[in-house]
Amino acid sequence: MNAPLSGIRVIEFCRGAAGAYCGLLLADMGADVILVDEPVDDITNDRHSMPGEPAQLGLRRNKRSVALDLLTLEGRSLAHTLVRGADVVIECLPSGALARAGLGYDALAGVQPHLVYVSISAFGQDGPRSAAQPGVPALEALRGMLGTAPSGLEPPRDLPVADLAAGLYAAFSASAALVAARQHGRGVHIDVPMLGATLAIAALRAGDEGAQAAHRAGLVPAAGMARGTAPESASDRTESAEGTGLYRQGLAEVAEHGKASPLARDDDAERFGGPVAPWPTFRAKDGYFGMDLDGQAHWQSICALVHRVDLLDDSRFGNALERARHQAALRDVLEAVFVLEDRGVWLARLAAVGVPCTAISTYSRVLADPQVAHMGWVRPMVLPGGQTTHTIVSPVRLNGRSPVTHGDPPAPGAHTGDILAELDAEDVLATRNDIPPKTR
């Protein structure tokens, strides 16, 4: 049983860590995971000698790879043949990319009703943000929602929280769906949004802060908050003990208005993400934003936007490796231009040329995002003592619906009588069928 998914074939159409991590987890459990690569991968070529490459390439372990060009008729035909023998398809590509190749869920489910189809995206398959830029590595700038690490105002920037959380949710959901597919012969379309997955794991440490943030975001009424809590005020933030979530969120919100960096650290490498610089955070006139420097195409677009095409000939920034080595200089050069205008201006310009980017956010602001309301991720919850609070439910959707009806947390032993009665009934049934009763 060291390979419980042996015999399961998974086809992975993914760019970025979220889908790759999902495929890796399934491969580690014995699935035959076939990674569909492009014939020439520009990102890999740009990073071929980058520090940290083993960790990136480690997401490919236990997999097999086939190079197919889905823009050609031959490539699409081979992909269709490949998928016909699959149990699971994982896709994490620009919206509609596989559908245009005839490899979307609707097209495949008709001929493969048992297929488990996993779609991983930044914000989900529908809603006001569903058409936004696909992978959005700079979604990591939303990590203000996670609170803070003890040493600073944000967790280490070199840990792709949103990608890994989504990959975990996706792998678990696919495994569960495979059980149902084997039992009933019907697959499912699984929608895993990185934003929802990150909110869900953040809720585990948000506590009352999360409930207050939900209230401030207008998602729940003040009366619905747990007893003894109230919307936080400036005095609440300053009087909270240092190290608590409310205190740290207060600092982050001050930073949001440009008085301090939400990533304020003494070490430039910490701010830029360690030994590589794909997701640095930059200061604009009114605050901070994150953007993705992944690949030469993004770098060329950024140089053009800041009217510094001369940087393309600067040996310090010639490729991702050199940009990482000279990240402090990179920050100084770009921020000299970015601070001249508000970050909203830069975010609009970056998005227009296809560079993934986002404002640094906080838990409150993320909860206020219209995508959160559209997905219905914030739900009321009654605690065992009768207090009412709110929780972030599972962000995963199966065929467009949440997987289960939410149940309130039970008091210890609340269902003892019911469960013991069920066990007694099972013992009686087992006796009638000459089956030895269960030992308790």
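[next item in queue]
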Amino acid sequence: MAKHKGRAWHGRLLAAALGVTALAAATSVWTAQAGPVGGTPQAGVSAPETRPEDQVEKVAVDIAHASDRGDRGVNITIDDGPDPVWTPQVLQLLKESGVKATFCMVGTQAEAYPDLVKAVVADGHRLCNHTVSHDTAMDTKSEAYQSQEILDAERMITKASGGVRPQYYRAPGGAFTPYSRQLAASRGMRPLGWNVDTKDFEHPGVDTMVATVKSEISNGPTVLFHDAGGERSQTLAALREVLPWLREQGYSFGFPVR
């Protein structure tokens, strides 16, 4: 699974998110002070009060790639939004195509555009946690930092959706760690990878993106697109070609396994 690096907009997003994350630290500080998932708090630190919304079903910690539709299933995943320009267009295209997708949302984006998060849910798509600030160096940071990024984003997305929780966790750029996978799984969010990277964030051209899907879909069912982080007209054009082609090849559209 390739690791994305160096997208300039994420640097700006990270800077903006630092303020949000700092404000949220008071509510998530226990995660910074606790040991690994399932461990005990440090001396002098009270365990957090268990609330009804914290009663979640744990899922597997390994990174999911398979589709719930079996060997001929395809998972369309859309990252980095929601975005007020591109997400509505992606949603309309998916609706016209009769396709459900998994939207991996950045916490600050979800907080900024809650109506779009609700629209995604209303259309029958699933939510995925893509952290607060899309830091592709997450795997080099402390467990406290990882906890804050994941749990604060979970709260932001759940609040924006009106109470619908993300069912998956996708590390920015694939920067998973054993700790982040365990933490996400303990919160009912299956770690989510990808098999086909269209590299639409690099604007390689519609033909190149379509050719990538056609040549690499045999590698596995989970296809990566984006609805934020830049101009996404190529993504829309590629989806218009890819979705009917996949159906013609006998594929059906589903969700990643949990």
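[queue empty]
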